[in-house]
């Protein structure tokens, strides 16, 4: 309550931007701002949250559109949930190749915690966290075709900055949301669903003959992974921390559910598979489970380490894989949606599975965007299950 109160009574203020970026594309630009990373002309490095100032010194002309203020969550220093500040930020007009999107709903993800803590590094401070949202296009950049004001779009992963009422995005990073899908559902599944897609269909191709282990089976990604793997015909073993989560995981298609606190997951997997082990482990817990996950694999099994909710796993000597000729991968959604075609195809498959009922999106928690602090507290203390959504 203390945390929430301090957020609620925070003063509205304009954020001082730490960087000046000289625009080489349009030297007549006067003091425009953008709230997404742009490439530095010299180094190619991505710089977040910058003020774009022109080389020209002339005063803003009458045609310069006025800056718009929106509310956003900003991080000025790494740390606990309390570093998430609710502030006013300036938003400019979209330039070539860009659109402005008014967010209807924003997906909360564990990766937001990594960036807030500094486990993953944002390019600079302050930054606006968030990598998943759905919203309506409110403006398009000059000459842009294929997107228009009023379109419902969603985006995931890149660029960071979705904890805001409105944001500017590269048009080629958003995907259209089918009219049958509610924006809150879209914001709950675009990142998590595309993650499940690449994990199950491309990173390791799950088939009916496979037995798989899914950690965090009742979480945002885990719930979708379990449902989708079941639909692909695999035998799904889910691992969770509580009885309540076990019941949800069962409902989501896990044939067997292990409760970490009550049973040793390695022994249980051994028992369930009659000593054979599983074909693949999807391990997003990291430090606490990594070694055990390796022990759960059958000969020539696949260790897919795709997250670290409990901390970064210790380094693995190659000899640890040699014992059973194991495969080990540490995949990221970004590399599996690197091209426009990959992004569109992956998103389309997710939305098609939602529309047909193969995937049931569990929006178990919603918070006002201004209360992102509480949402982070709950996510990190393992109180949440399914998808968590912030509403601007
Ligand atoms: N590689 C990629 O491209 C990619 C993309 C998306 C997500 N991810 C990863 O997938 C994982 C799940 O992400 P999510 O956003 O859907 O989160 P989530 O699963 O909704 O929430 C995290 C869950 O982690 C479990 N957990 C285990 N140990 C924990 C600990 N020490 N502290 C806190 N939680 C712990 C908890 O479930 P229990 O209580 O049941 O243990 C908790 O509910 C994260 O590790 C994330 O980084 C990776």
UniProtKB/TrEMBL annotation:
SMART domains: PKS_ER. NCBIfam families: PRK10754.1. CDD domains: QOR2 (cd05286). Transmembrane segments: none annotated. Pfam families: ADH_N, ADH_zinc_N. Keywords: NADP, Oxidoreductase. Residues 79-390 form the Enoyl reductase (ER) domain. One of its GO terms (cellular component) is cytosol. This is Probable quinone oxidoreductase. One of its GO terms (molecular function) is NADPH binding. It comes from the Eukaryota.
């Amino acid at each position: 309550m203390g945390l929430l109160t301090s957020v609620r009574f925070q003063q509205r203020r304009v954020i001082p931007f730490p960087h000046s970026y000289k625009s080489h594309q349009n030297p007549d630009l006067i003091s425009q701002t953008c709230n997404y990373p742009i490439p530095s002309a010299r180094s190619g490095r991505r710089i977040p949250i910058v003020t774009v100032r022109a080389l020209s010194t002339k005063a803003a002309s009458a045609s310069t559109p006025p800056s718009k203020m929106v509310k956003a969550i900003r991080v000025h220093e790494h740390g606990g949930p309390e570093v998430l500040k609710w502030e006013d930020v300036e938003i400019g007009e979209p330039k070539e190749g860009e659109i402005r999107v008014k967010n209807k709903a924003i997906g909360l993800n564990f990766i937001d915690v990594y960036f807030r803590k500094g486990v993953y590094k944002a390019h600079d401070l302050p930054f606006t966290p968030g990598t998943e949202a759905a919203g309506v296009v409110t403006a398009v950049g000059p000459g842009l075709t294929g997107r228009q004001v009023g379109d419902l779009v969603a985006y995931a992963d890149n660029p960071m900055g979705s904890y805001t009422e409105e944001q500017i995005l590269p048009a080629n990073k958003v995907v259209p949301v089918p009219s049958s899908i509610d924006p809150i559902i879209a914001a709950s599944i675009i990142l998590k669903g595309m993650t499940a897609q690449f994990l199950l269909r491309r990173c390791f191709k799950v088939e009916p003959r496979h037995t798989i282990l899914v950690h965090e089976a009742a979480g945002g990604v885990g719930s979708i992974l379990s449902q989708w793997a079941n639909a692909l015909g695999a035998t799904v073993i889910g691992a969770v921390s509580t009885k309540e989560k076990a019941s949800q995981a069962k409902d989501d298609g896990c044939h067997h559910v292990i409760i970490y606190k009550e049973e040793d997951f390695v022994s249980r997997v051994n028992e369930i598979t009659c000593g054979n082990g599983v074909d693949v482990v999807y391990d997003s817990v990291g430090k606490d489970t990594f070694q055990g996950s390796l022990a759960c694999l059958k000969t020539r099994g696949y260790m897919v380490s795709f997250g670290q909710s409990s901390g970064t796993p210790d380094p693995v000597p190659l000899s640890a894989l040699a014992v059973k000729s194991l495969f080990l991968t540490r995949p990221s959604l970004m590399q599996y949606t690197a091209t426009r075609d990959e992004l569109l195809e992956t998103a389309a498959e997710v939305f098609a599975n939602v529309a047909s009922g193969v995937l049931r999106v569990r929006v178990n928690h919603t918070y006002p965007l201004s209360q992102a602090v509480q949402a982070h507290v709950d996510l990190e203390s393992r109180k949440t299950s399914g998808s968590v959504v912030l509403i601007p």
